[in-house]
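chain below, 375 aa
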Amino acid sequence: MDGPLKGIRVIEIGQALAGPLAGAIMADMGADVIKVEKPDGGDDARGWGPPFIEEASIMFHVTNRNKRSVTLDMKSPDGVAKLKDLVRDADILIQNLRSGVVAALGIGPQDMTAINPRLIYCSIWAFGPSGPLSRAPGFDPLLQAFSGVMMQTGRHGDPPTFCAPAINDKATAQWCVIGALAALQQRHVTGKGCVIDTSLLDSAAAWVDTSLATYHVTQELSPRTGTAASAIVPYQVFETADSPMVIAAGYDRLFHKCAAVLGYPEWATDPRFARGRDRFLNRDVLIDLMSVVLRTKTRGEWISAFEAVGVPCSPVNTIVELSQTEQFKAVDLVRTLPGSGLPVIGLPISFDGQRPHPQSGAPKLGEHNDEVLGG
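prediction:
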């Protein structure tokens, strides 16, 4: 399978995670992605370990598969000239250098689109291209803190809590790809490229959109609710006789079924619990009652009972438990990188029922200099 982006050439001037992940997504979809790295060490993420495989970190291998690597000294006129030569035939450029750097180097959007008016120039910023923090460094924890995400995560009274996956880097990479694909479609109509900007702050703010809207209406901050949803009850983690599970009875009819499974069908007509608003107002009472009942049986017993009547539920899995589930195996997400043999999560999209396979692993630093720069 060649992929829907076969024939599209992408130049990636990417560091760490957001830019390289955007490039990896396009590469998985068949684009020819040329990764431009600095000669002295390349992408800093190469050293973000241990563990390492072939002298590069696991994260680097995951987010740089299917690419070709060239080294250019962007601080030299020769390096800039060679980059501009690459751009002449490119469709998309992705860069996530700090604000002000591309302009200082003479490789900003105006410089590059003057050379290639069909170029789609994608910039990924930390806090955005303008404003007092435009030149501040941006890493995922900083944006989780700045955006209020940390103050919404965890239980009431907990210190600010970090969400382990790099949610802002990964979301921004996806927004970048969405923008680039939309611009490709627009180019079919206009014949011209486009300048796209997105940032980790944009993505972080998008995570808290409902919370911001709620505050504007109520002038109150939503309390942190730990492993429970803030406004839907019951919609949270519960302990059982052996292991934790989640029950997500988000609608009245689902809660009524849930109550019957728990052995208390009268809760469906109890004025404290009958409707979603009632359950929200009486959350503590209901959760205490449910918690006592759920500890009387094992997780497996409860899941079987809930699934039999269609109440949404799930075990709280470890990464190992996830990898051993039949469902995870059935969706065929795991791909093996050629060369290193590293198992990775593949592109979370299928085309005509086929999920793309990596055609190559992550490149060694400058591995394709002769192939790309030598003609």
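The longest strand covers residues 32-37. The CA atoms of residues 284 and 372 lie 63 Å apart.
thats it, cya
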